Write the structure tokens for this entry.
Amino acid sequence: MECTLYHGCEKICETVCSRDVSFNSNVSFNQLITFGDLKYCQIPVKTRLSFNIVLIFKENSKMTIGCVSINLFNEKGFFNSGIRDLNVWPFYEIDERLGCMKEYDGLKGNLKNDPKLAKLLSHNWIHLLFTKLVVSFESFICPMMYSSRDGKKIEKLKLTHTKEDKEDETLL
């Protein structure tokens, strides 16, 4: 598993790789992933966490078997805390230029003509058709909301406002 934080097309920090996990029908990584000394207050509101699921063969050959991204903060500025089930894009690798590449949710074709798929849809079992990555974010006592930098401190320290700071303030 390769984990990266992106803001737009730029990496915020180095990619973090999980330890090796043996492969069977139900893979569990079950490990804490940290990005060094990076704090929540240091990341932009539009930061997304991206995962590449990689199958490693003998020696240095590998194949990406899926990918998925999720924004750390939702559209209202609240941190996505708790457990999240993410639908994995099969056989794609994260493309940092595609900020819209979040979760896979596409099924093409006429589903009603396929009796097996129709049965799954009628029982609300559509989730069985997707590979999922379950991510558990930190949970807090109160919902955590993104806060742009304090304007008075910026003026006092004679720092400049960036265009993104002004956009973030208009969101709040």
Remarks:
- The domain at 2-23+30-171 is CATH 2.60.40.150 (Immunoglobulin-like).
